[in-house]
Amino acid sequence: MTTTDLPPYARVRQAKRARYDAPAVHAILDAGLVAHVGFIMDGRPMVIPMAYGRDGDMLYIHGASTTRIIRDVTEGFPLCLTVSMVDGIVAARSAFHHSVNYRSVVVHGQAHHVTDPDGHDHALKVITEHLLPGRWAEVRPMLAKERKATGVLAMRIDTAAAKTRTGGPVDDAADYDLPIWAGVIPVVTALGRPVDDNRVVEGTPCPASLDAARHRFL
Amino acid sequence: MTTTDLPPYARVRQAKRARYDAPAVHAILDAGLVAHVGFIMDGRPMVIPMAYGRDGDMLYIHGASTTRIIRDVTEGFPLCLTVSMVDGIVAARSAFHHSVNYRSVVVHGQAHHVTDPDGHDHALKVITEHLLPGRWAEVRPMLAKERKATGVLAMRIDTAAAKTRTGGPVDDAADYDLPIWAGVIPVVTALGRPVDDNRVVEGTPCPASLDAARHRFL
């Protein structure tokens, strides 16, 4: 897909920071922990942080069946799903050139309720394994009442724009002579040591999914 | 403000996780690095990660004058500004009870362009100092052309709901006997060591704002 094929709402203003190819988009979607999902309700914009997962060009989100976005969002509703990570604070010699290093993706698509049992289980597996790869096989199977209590929305990626900033500050030429510190303060996100809930059956080891999750941050 | 005063879109479904008081709301807004700002454009929801800052019950966002949200959002447009931090991955003995520990605030308000020079400078100071407290006094003053190139939107907090989850997994009673690991994997966000841009004038020290920024993460 080239930029000219994209509707205006899906384009990034600063071309040098934008990518629209699937590998760039998928890498950022796969690195995020939560998505900020936007939808329109009663004429108002709503932005809700939600767990999510990706399988190919399909994104899944879930919630209690009674949650607004599950209960009130109807078939074909437009959704905007945004994932972003802050990688650094960029300090320049002027306030104007201060910035943030980041990776972000803005996806547009339409909501579809996933109701068939196989699709529903698959979506929940994708969402669970987004946070803890391999976890699905480690836990006990889903119960029928749990399936009923959990609503799943799928959205195919109609358009997606990745935008990133890397590197140091770019100051006005004259400002480099000023005795003002400038550079990048890295923002680091990492997983700490797992803390069990004090009721783990004795001798149960930390599972492989925890290690797999940790590798996402390396 | 009590829950019953709030319009439906501003209420949190799970009462036990919700707070609506200013101290709880402000603490989360002040701890975030970026906000996800939602608005409606051509009938579609848009969610854009943006730098922001808070002063009392006023929130400021900014962007290049040519940026969509600055250029196309008109006076009184409804905005939704959401700030969230992930504090941990909660692993349970069933997929159903997996969760995330987090802090989040969803704010609803209306966009107002800040055009008077003093208000404009004040907003930019608030946004700059949100990331680097005290930075405004360390850098060279804004230039007229920079003010012109930067658009500022203000939104008063009309309604705000804070929602947090803390603690370990809550499993079904029968599941505690299963030999499955369960607990919390902390997600840690921190600032790394500042990296200067190699053009800092010799002898220029790291400024106080960097230390102040670090204290936000302690």
UniProtKB/TrEMBL annotation, chains A, B:
InterPro entries, per database record: Pyridox_Oxase-rel, Split_barrel_FMN-bd
Organism: Komagataeibacter saccharivorans
Name of the protein in question: Pyridoxamine 5'-phosphate oxidase
Superkingdom of the organism of origin: Bacteria
Signal peptide residue numbers: none
Xref: Gene3D superfamilies: Electron Transport, Fmn-binding Protein, Chain A
PANTHER family the record matches: 5-NITROIMIDAZOLE ANTIBIOTICS RESISTANCE PROTEIN, NIMA-FAMILY-RELATED PROTEIN-RELATED, FLAVIN-NUCLEOTIDE-BINDING PROTEIN
